[in-house]
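Example complex used in Figure S2.
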Amino acid sequence: MQPSAEGTSMSQVEGFLKLPKLYDNIDGVTELCIGFMCLAWTLLAWLQMHTPEGAVWHRMYTLFIFVAVMCFITHFGSKAIKNRITYRRTGYVEYRRDKQWVPMAIAAAVAALVPVGLFVASRRHWHIATPVCLIGLGIAAFYIPYARMARWRWATFGAMVAAPLVIAALPAELVEAFANHVSVFSAIPATAVGAYWLTFGIDGALLMLSGGIGLWLYLRHTQAPAQEGR
Amino acid sequence: MNQQIRAIAELDRVIHEPGRLMIAALLFAVDRADFLYLQHETGMNKGTLSSHISRLEEARYVDVEKTYRGKVPRTLLRLTAAGRKAFEQYRRDLKQAL
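Predicted assembly (328 residues):
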């Protein structure tokens, strides 16, 4: 996106302002991190569903250790890729810290509202397909800015939209079987657990795949310059 | 119409140049970035980019810091407070002019 010789339109200026934000995922690392976290949660849920009540996977300290390990891997893993590959090939960017609280506040609000919504839905005996669809579509909506980066990413978006709709249409017995016919929390039935497990598992796998393709394409189309100039 | 023409005349010429506008906009959205990043996003060659940065530095809109990443030299650039103010003013003026 280059301004024309005749002049610059307002939309072009706004376009330049968006470039650094998109640069964060130029190597697919953001998608890989989110996908990894979704799959890690899926793994923990699977372990909880397939082990007896008193097993170590049901303990609170296990959850804290699991989250700490997950954060450690995503933080240092992404940092390693950025330092060793991205910054050497296409440059270094340090983002403004004064605006970093916005996504954190949104994530915290969503994390607080989802369990409350699930609890209310189960208490009022709402059909569980609706909240599953909403959360699945919410994750797909979150992906739209990434899909805009490249045309092929719209295929990932399409699959993310289709996944919750297909899950909602599956027979209840089959969805319950994915949850091993058990509930992780007493308020949420096995059908819901199975549906969320599938949603997060599929979305996590799709994000990992999309991030992996993004990283592969980045490595293919870029190379480190011999030495920085100026 | 007169007001529009006046608004165009009042645009900051240092920032209005397309190359420098790209640099200013990119740096406005971040805390700081290096020379390689600006080169990648703007598609300019080293010489052109360097001359635009020098012009912005002369106007005290950009802070240039030379560091090392291991043994490789790295040039970090940051928009100064005056640069941020000038860019915000430029956006307002451009909106008015258009």
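Strands of chain B lie at 32-34, 62-69, 72-79. The mean pLDDT of chain B is 89.
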